[in-house]
Specification:
By secondary structure, the chain is mainly beta. It is 5% helix and 43% strand.
């Protein structure tokens, strides 16, 4: 792993301009990913080749190689005023989150105490002396903010196009989530405090998955699609979680405190049942690993 270097900054613009490094910042590119579709590793590598040419023009700051990535010009907390002389209340902004990581690990945290998204990246295996000296993250590690259905959506991409498949650990923090979509390979996924629709893919492209751990006290009603090739899956959702559950794994353990599921068909490696009304489908597939789901 390479140590931290000095901060630099770049302006990434449209019309296929390359990043121009100057002091205080780092190369970040704008990119557009689909809100729902998950991309295979081969496609991610192709996107990595295109990152410097992707559209957008945004000033950003990043402290790299394990330090804070701060995205500028992102909508933050919007104060909402009540009656005259009433105190200003804090409105926690919702963000969509899309993470595509070809090799490494992903952490996503929803924390209402933060005002704007924060991304941290650790890149392993960098041996280029210029990269070490400048302290920059490669252009194939990129982050941007886009609008989807009037939702600010943080998109993070790490896909090494060199063929070396260098590993990247990503840590994403947002105030609150409207949806989360993570496609990863080669490491663990940890997701905390989120709400909204949840989609997770780990190790489907090459079998190099890892453990998946999701914990939130929020009720999950907007549906879930979780597919893991290799690794145990532990899910804890909040009281009020609802939807039709269809789960399969090497072993499946479902516990629903305070909820009496309907139409249950269960075996040691599968579970089907309705956890409540007015919720969307939850589909969970664990090819080689144990599944534990707790609703509390």
């Amino acid at each position: 792993m390479v140590g931290c270097g000095p901060d630099v900054s770049v302006q990434v613009c449209k019309h296929n301009h390359q990043p121009r490094p100057v002091r205080r910042g780092y190369p970040v590119s704008m990119m557009t990913l689909p809100r729902v579709a998950l991309l295979p590793v081969a496609a991610l590598a192709l996107i990595g080749l295109l990152v410097p040419a992707l559209s957008g023009c945004t000033a950003t700051k990043r402290r790299v190689l394990g330090r804070t990535v701060a995205i500028a010009n992102v909508e933050s907390v919007v104060p909402e005023r009540g009656p005259v002389n009433a105190p200003v209340s804090k409105v926690v902004p919702l963000f969509g989150v899309i993470v595509e990581n070809a090799n490494g690990s992903v952490i996503v945290i929803a924390d209402p105490s933060v005002n704007v998204p924060e991304v941290r990246a650790k890149v392993y295996g960098l041996d280029d002396r210029e990269s070490r000296r400048s302290g920059t993250v490669p252009a194939w590690v990129a982050a941007s903010i886009e609008k989807y259905d009037n939702v600010n959506t943080l998109q993070v991409l790490a896909a090494d196009p060199s063929g070396e498949n260098r590993s990247v650990d990503l840590r994403v923090v947002v105030p609150a989530t409207a949806f989360v979509n993570v496609n990863n390979s080669g490491g663990n996924i940890e997701i905390t405090g989120i709400g909204g629709n949840l989609q997770i893919s780990n190790g489907l492209a090459d079998g190099r998955g890892g453990r998946v751990h999701v914990r939130t006290d929020k009720a999950l009603k907007d549906g879930a699609l979780i597919r893991v090739r290799n690794g145990d899956v532990s899910l804890t959702f909040g009281k009020g979680t609802a939807g039709k559950l269809d789960a399969k794994g090497r072993s499946v353990n479902i516990r629903t405190d305070g909820i009496k599921p309907k139409g249950v068909i269960a075996d040691t490696d599968s579970y089907q049942g309705e956890l409540g009304s007015l919720g969307k489908d939850m589909i969970i597939r664990v090819v080689d690993g144990k599944l534990t789901l707790l609703v509390e």
